[in-house]
Design brief:
Layout: H1 3-34, H2 38-64, H3 75-90, H4 93-124, H5 128-158, H6 169-173
Amino acid sequence: MKQETLKELFVEQIRDIYDAEKQLVKALPKLADAADSEELSDGLLNHLEETKGHVSRLEEVFAQVQIAPRGKTCKAMKGLIEEGNEASQEEEGALRDLAIIAGAQRVEHYEISAYGTARTLAEHLGLSQAARLLQQTEDEERAADTKLTEVATTLYESSDDMDDEGETASVGASRSGHSTSGKPGTKKKG
């Protein structure tokens, strides 16, 4: 395979990821605001800061291949964000948080795959510094996915306290700012 053709594919991939990350920078604050769980909201805001770093890291990758940082519309991310936003508006309380987590984990899995592909292309092109940067971001995306699973587990555990209406008692009671279960991640933001 011609190196030039492989490089074109690599550039196409990082342009797609670049746009995806920029879309995510806009979407994460809205999801964090929609989250009922303080732990989830804080986690999304922390990942927002990481995502801004991912954008900067991609700009470094662009510089290494001497290409201006420019995105190519990532239709997949657009769709994933749209689905996540719809789910977050349809549900309430802990169910909303679980829907947000489901959408966020789809995003993380997409990003893990995209960064893995780009890293492999960089390795085949002999772009070891770019490969290292892409691996670093892939590792951070995996860590974010793990954190989302931990928050979901906390929410599932708190669902043992379900009231007759189907909403978790701890989340429902926490609307005043106090969790009745004493479990982390179920306190409603004030």
